[in-house]
Amino acid sequence: MLMEDARERIVAFGKRIATEGLAVGTSGNLSEYDPTTGLMAISPSGLGYFETTPADIVVLRLDGTVVEGELRPSSEAPLHAEVYRRRPAARAVVHTHSPYATTLAALGEPIRAVHFTIADSGAEEVPLSPYVTFGTPELAASVGKTFGEHPATSAVLMENHGLVACGWACRQPRVRLAHPVAGGVRGNAARALWRGGHGRFKALRDLWPACRRQGIKAAVAGFFSLGY
Asked: Which of 24, 52, 155, 190 has the fewest CB neighbours in a 10 Å radius?
């Protein structure tokens, strides 16, 4: 079975995000990429996280050609492939409709620098990609364009949709999604923070070395934490 370890991780972390309320039903999708073979393993379409087994994970090329798997790959496979193209160092991508991310997406707001944890995204702001219909090549292109316009970020918020993030390993996108979204929603819930306090965090780049030293960007297995 191709990419067996990656399949097992995707199944395990899929159950975790479902348990933590970050993905409801069959929403959201997870993948890993092996640049040596050019293969991507991604969660299947229309199957619940607790029903999914490693054998159900679909292996395909970035152009969408299925190499191994009986089920249909996630409809957002083009989105994942585009993130890997835009971020060659990425080895894992996760997309969810978690409550806080969806709230910000519905507001049409980027995740601004109202909290120091936003530094974990690698940029001073998690950018907002304009609304495009889900599951389409146009969405993948739009999000890819936003990644291209913001070379420092490892996460993009999709308007009226949700959040997508990438990392070096399967466990990493968890931190890059949970921390910025938590801080961002708290900031939007209290607009005064944005009006009067966000400027203090414009020097977030100074925090990045400290984040790396403390292991924040590679901490604790799993995609997410803190229930966000």
From this structure: 190
Other CB atoms within a 10 A radius of the CB of residue 215 amount to 10
Neighbours of 50 (CB within 10 A): 10
CA distance 43 to 56: 8
Please report which residue ranges of the chain form alpha helices under DSSP H: 4-19, 77-86, 99-107, 137-149, 173-189, 191-196, 208-213
What is the enclosing helix (H) or strand (E) of 14?
A: helix 4-19
For the annotated catalytic residues, the residue numbers are 76
Secondary structure (3-state) at 216: helix
* Number of residues that this document lists for the chain: 228
Spatial contact of 36 and 58, defined as CB atoms under 8 Å apart:
no
Alpha carbon of residue 136 to chain centroid: 17
pTM: 0.78
Q: Say which residue the tokens 């998690």 belong to.
A: 126
Q: Residue 160, SS3?
A: coil
